[in-house]
Every structure is written in C-alpha cells, then in structure tokens.
Specification:
It comes from Nonomuraea zeae. The protein is α/β, with parallel strands linked by helices. It is built from twelve helices and 16 strands. The chain folds into two domains: 198 residues, Medium-chain alcohol dehydrogenases, catalytic domain (Quinone Oxidoreductase, Chain A, domain 1, Alpha-Beta Complex), CATH 3.90.180.10; 136 residues, 3-Layer(aba) Sandwich (Rossmann fold), CATH 3.40.50. Helices cover 28% and strands 25% of the residues. A hairpin with a 7-residue loop joins β1 and β2. The longest helix has 12 residues.
C-alpha cells in the first residue's frame, strides 16, 4: 500500500510502498483511511521537535488525525464491524491504568500515538485498537471529519475545561483562527454564552472567525494586547485560549488575561517567560492542554453531526502530501489540509 513516510528530519516526507498492516491481537482494528489530517504537529515532527520525546526510529508513517472505514477486526472486537464508518481517537489506550480509570485517557500510561511514535494514518490502511474507534453515521464522509480526531478534540477539550469560567458577561479571547482555532470558535459558540474575541494576523482568518460566531476580531498588528484591553474596559479576558503559542503570541496571551483569569496554552513552539511576581500578584493561571479524551471526541462528534461544528478543509490526494505540507507551512491553507488516499 502507499504511505507518507518521514525518512529524514528537516526534509519533506515521501510517498512510497509499504506492507499492509494486519490484525495481530484480539482487540486490533484495521481501518481503511478515507481522510488523514495534516497538522502543524506534522511540520514540527519533520523539523525534529518530537524526535527526543518520542524516540522513534526513522522512517515511519505520519498521520494522527484519521477517519475511514473498518477493514478488519480482531476476534474480541464487538463495538465495530467491517464496513463501519469511524473516526479514531489519536491515542489507543489500555483502559486499565489510573489515568484511564479517571477518564483522563490521553494520559494513559500504556498509550501509543500513531503518527508520532509509531506508523500513522497517512496511508491506505492503519492498524489501531477498538478503544480508539468512534462509530459514525454511515453517511459521514471521513475526509469531512478526519481533523476532528486531533485538532477538533484538542480545541474542544480546552473549551470544555474552561466552561465553568465562561458564564454570561465574561470575555474569551482566542488567539489564532486557523486549523484548531476555527474549531474552537464554534465550540465556544455552541457551549457558552461568553463574548468571543478572536486575534489573528490574517484578515481572511478573521473574516472566517466572524462567520463562525466571533463577536469581535482583532488584527495582530503589534497593538493586539491594547486592543483587547480596550474591548474589555481595561481588564483583559477572563479566559485566553492560545492556539498559536509561538512567535510572541505566548507573551501576548498572558498579557491579555485578566486578574484571576486563566491563560490556556494549546499551541506550542514558543517559550513562556513570566516573572513569578506577575503570576502571584494577579492570581492568573496557566493551563496546559494536550489532545482530549475519548469522551471529548464522542461529544464533539455529536456537535459535528448536528451541524454545530464544521471543518473548513482543503483536500489533497495522498500522492500530493509534500504539496500539502508546503501549503500548510506557507500559510496557504485556511482551516485544515486533508489527505485522501
């Protein structure tokens, strides 16, 4: 089968033939991929940022945002069958460790992360587990929802955590209206009554943000912190969701956060530098976010299949993976790039 493989860091991945995966264990599921999202994390992987953390041996197949149709199942699988349409939680988990028992399955002690630490779904077939499969309406096109598997639940998970802080009369600033951010806007609009302010440097992204439910937009032109303060009567926002967190956005995000407010770091790549006095004197909170739970994905798919969260996508054939990577890196993709085998 064809797969998108990373052979060297700081080089584009290549499409090549590899053996097809097969069921090995009783809870294994092989999925025929109908859509695989291309994420900024894939760019970071190609840059080598995850090399030490994941300890992978090159080459391997990229792709951690996957949806498709069940192709084969292990002997103990009961919740899905061949032909079912599914979206895949990005981290197959054990279900037995303390994190899984507590419902924090993205922190599973025995999880794997296909596309980061093992072969992923930018391929015709992917080996995963029953615990990763969320069954969908058979009319669903996998290419339309694939990026919800990671970008979607990452955004949803952050919003879900912030809901108790976003009562009527509050303001939530969202930095970055791209692949993750445009999902976050819709989640905020669907689940809260907060005033949504979106900050981005791209005018087209801000136009999309307005269409998706933003109440106000701010151009990141160097005055974005002052602009947010002006919109909030000088206070700042009760919650800031930073979907960029690099190139200075991480400093802006904390500065936009009101006293006793919470700054959620969702994007990554930068370094937060904050004097500890600024944290304790204002009681501002820094909150980290990674992926989301299986339950988050199930809830998000309810919103998606009700039409309350939709993905703005640009599709590419699998053979055009290098073009998709280049377009994403150059900022030519509004929303999400999707590979369709």
């Amino acid at each position: 089968m064809k797969a998108v493989r990373l052979h060297e860091y700081h080089r584009l991945p290549v499409v090549e033939e590899v053996p097809e995966p097969a069921v090995r264990g009783p809870l294994d599921v092989v999925v025929r991929i109908g859509g695989a999202g291309v994420c900024r994390t894939d760019l970071h992987i190609a840059e080598g940022q995850w090399a030490e953390a994941m300890g992978v041996t090159l080459p391997y197949t990229l792709g951690h945002e996957n949806a498709g149709w069940v192709h084969a199942v292990g002997s103990a699988v009961t919740s899905v069958a061949a032909g079912d349409t599914v979206i895949l939680h990005p981290t197959p988990t054990c279900g037995l460790c303390p994190a899984c028992r507590a419902g924090q399955d993205m922190h599973c002690a025995a999880s794997v992360f296909p596309g980061l630490d093992s072969d992923g779904g930018m391929a015709e077939l992917l080996l995963t587990s029953e615990r990763a499969c969320v069954k969908l309406d058979p009319r669903t096109r996998p290419e339309d929802v694939a990026a919800l598997a990671d970008a979607g639940i990452t955004a949803y998970h952050a919003v879900r955590k912030a809901i108790p802080l976003l009562y009527p009369g509050t303001t939530c600033v969202l930095i970055g209206a791209g692949g993750l951010g445009h999902i976050g806007i819709q989640c905020l609009a669907a689940l809260t009554a907060t005033t949504i302010v979106v900050v981005d440097r791209n005018p087209d992204a801000l136009k999309l943000a307005e269409q998706l439910g933003a109440h106000a937009t701010v151009v990141a032109d160097g005055r974005q912190v002052d602009a947010v303060k002006d919109l909030t009567g000088g206070r700042g926002a009760e919650v800031v969701l930073d979907f960029v967190a690099e190139q200075g956005a991480e400093q802006d995000g904390f500065a936009m956060t009101a006293r006793a407010g919470s700054y959620y770091v969702i994007g990554y790549g930068g370094t937060v530098r904050i004097p500890t006095l600024d944290i304790i004197s204002t009681e501002r909170n820094l909150v980290g976010n990674i992926v989301g739970t299986y339950r988050d994905l199930c809830e998000l798919m309810v919103l998606a299949q009700a039409g309350k969260v939709t993905l703005h996508t640009k599709t590419y054939p699998l053979d055009a993976a290098a073009e998709a990577f280049q377009d994403l890196d150059a900022g030519r993709v509004r929303g999400r790039a999707i590979l369709v085998p």
